[in-house]
Amino acid sequence: MKTLFWVFVAIFCVYVFYTGAMAVWSYLEVTSLVEDVVNERASRGDRNERATRIRDELAKKVAESGIKIDARSVSVADTGLALDVGVRWNWPVVSYQGQDYLAVPLKHERTFNIPAR
Predict the structure, then answer these.
(1) C-alpha to C-alpha distances, 10 to 2, 7, 18, 24, nearest whole angstrom
(2) Helix (H) or strand (E) holding 32
(3) Are 111 and 38 in contact, with CB atoms under 8 Å apart?
């Protein structure tokens, strides 16, 4: 009985480590996607629709990478010479049949300075 208990403890520790590592991966993935999309899209096109284009592209790329997110979780504010980008998502810890019962909320916010033309 004691051995079975320690086997379950070991399985639990491995699961906690795996979930934590995947949450860190999702944070690094979102950080990288934010950098890529802003650097690619910020200087192109009209300033009036820059924030909308970046928000839509960012939501699409984050969803393609396998992180559950909707368009409302991505915010981009154009303040003239800077872009304020924020992404919020939940990384599931306990899921059953597609339903998340426990999730870790994660957030990435960054301000990018856009050079004037």
Answers:
(1) 12, 5, 12, 21
(2) helix 2-41
(3) no
Residue 1 three-state SS = coil
49: helix, coil or strand? helix
Q: What is the pLDDT along the chain (117 residues), one digit of tens a residue?
A: 889 999 999 999 999 999 999 999 999 999 999 999 998 887 776 777 888 889 999 999 999 998 988 878 999 998 878 889 999 999 998 888 988 899 899 999 999 988 765
Cβ within 8 Å of residue 78, ≥6 positions away: 47, 50, 51
Q: How many CB atoms lie within 10 A of CB 41?
A: 19
- Which secondary structure element, helix H or strand E, spans residue 85, and what is its range? strand 82-96
How much is the pTM? 0.84
In terms of Cβ atoms closer than 10 Å to its own Cβ (0-12, 13-18, 19+), residue 108 is middle
Q: Which residue reads 């480590």 in tokens?
A: 17
